[in-house]
Design a protein that fits this description.
CATH architecture of chain A: Up-down Bundle
Radius of gyration of chain A: 20 Å
Strand content of chain A: under 5%
Low-confidence stretches of chain A: none
Number of domains of chain A: 1
Largest interface: A-B, 32 and 32 residues
CATH superfamily of chain A: Phosphate transport system protein phou homolog 2, domain 2
Oligomer: homodimer
Structural class of chain A: mainly alpha
Amino acid sequence: MDNSKIGHHISGQFNKELEDVRNKVLTMGGVVEHQIKLAVLAFTTGDLEMAEIAIKLASEVDQLEVDIDKECMQILAMRQPAAFDLRMLIAVIKIIDELEGIGDLAERIAKITIQLTNPKSGKHDQYFELEHMAQLVQGMLHDALDIFARMDLADIASITSLDKNVDREYSSVLRQLSLKMMESPNNVHRMLDVISLARALERIGDLACNLCEHLVYMFKGEDVRHLTQAELERKLN
Amino acid sequence: MDNSKIGHHISGQFNKELEDVRNKVLTMGGVVEHQIKLAVLAFTTGDLEMAEIAIKLASEVDQLEVDIDKECMQILAMRQPAAFDLRMLIAVIKIIDELEGIGDLAERIAKITIQLTNPKSGKHDQYFELEHMAQLVQGMLHDALDIFARMDLADIASITSLDKNVDREYSSVLRQLSLKMMESPNNVHRMLDVISLARALERIGDLACNLCEHLVYMFKGEDVRHLTQAELERKLN
């Protein structure tokens, strides 16, 4: 599958409209990726300026969601698209909702980081498992957006297959943090914040998987939500 | 605004299709409401059979989501609707996504309840604040579905205004539970489960508010996501 899929309309204006929607989704995806990167870096380095920028980017993400949604509705009303174009527009409406959700979670991570970090030393405890979880979910989102950019569904099942690793790491983080709470009850508040942060990362993995499901629908016209990973792989082969 | 809004098409078949979608959304909403009710009752009474039924209903909710989504896409492709009909179909696609999310959270509450409850005595600690939170969010969802059923937007801002109460109760529950953890560190695991349950209730409130935003879009064609409660109220007056 290649870009020519959306380049076959008699109306050049219609082509331009679809191309514009596609570009805006990629822009929105880029901003959300940047938001997560900043939020995670703020957490690992203690640089709270990055956390502040991640929080500020939220309004840009919200505005892009509203704009793209409006554009999709206008195209649906004016062009009455069918087949791939219709599926693309409906998939885009769902994809930007996932992206907005991911942006919210990045904002959440940035806010928790500010709470956790000592403003004088810029330090807090290190959590290597969280850094690894963050790398995993950032990779999943990046690869999902790459599929949308390249219009090629090839690697989708390898993205969704990573979610079980994310879930496993989340469970492990949860176990370690509950042990720490039992050992030093005075740290309960901080530990609860770290758990919220881990939970936000785990949710980003879930939403990246939802995004993949919308991409499958867009390209193949098949609703693969609520399938297991094995069922999804069978469906795509 | 009344039911006649979707009764003005020359094609009787088209009317029937829209009416069918509407009825299925109400059915789905009913199943999800039932799921929450069972999950919450299981928690308050310790009757685990109810929790099991709430979990089993999840597949019914998933199937309804897939079916309604497919029906909306078929109508979009075949009927090329405009104005209110187009907005209703797109709003429905978003509303069933929120309902499915709420169903997931109800399932989560049921599963946590099973973990928390002593299978012999059917007992666990009482958490009156949680019961009150549960009542609040159940009311919000019920009233939002009622607006969809009656096709009358009147009370929408009074539903979304309740979300700050839900958030306040959630914060209060969180404070109490962290105190309990500090006092008896051996209970950390159970307390973390109760926090997850409270968090699920808080999220149901959020998703009920999202549902309200989709209803405003459907009836008024205005995108009110990302507005504050005060901005929303100004917009609706």
